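Thread title: Can someone regenerate the structure for this chain?

I was given the following input by a collaborator and told the matching structure tokens would be attached. They weren't. Posting the sequence so someone can regenerate them.
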Amino acid sequence: MVYYIVGAILLLWFLGGLSRKLRRRNKVIHIVEDNCTGCKRCIKRCRRQVLDLAGDETGKHVVVKHPDKCTACGDCVKACKFNALEIMDKRERKYKS
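Best answer:
Regenerated them for you:
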């Protein structure tokens, strides 16, 4: 009985990692700079330290500093109260830019 429980836990852990890997390959975080206020809520929420705050002549806003580390988990999107972050397909981003 214990072996079944341990096996189920290991299987769920493995499938979760596989899901994150596939999502990372197809998805990317996109920042809507017009909506960003620079409040840093998303930066604090990101476990992978993908986001950073940058300043220019228009003010401070969030930028994607390490896109290769992003797993597209959506934690930063949930933390943002200003709808400044969105997760999109990499193919869509190429067409939008």
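The two ends are 54 Å apart (CA to CA).
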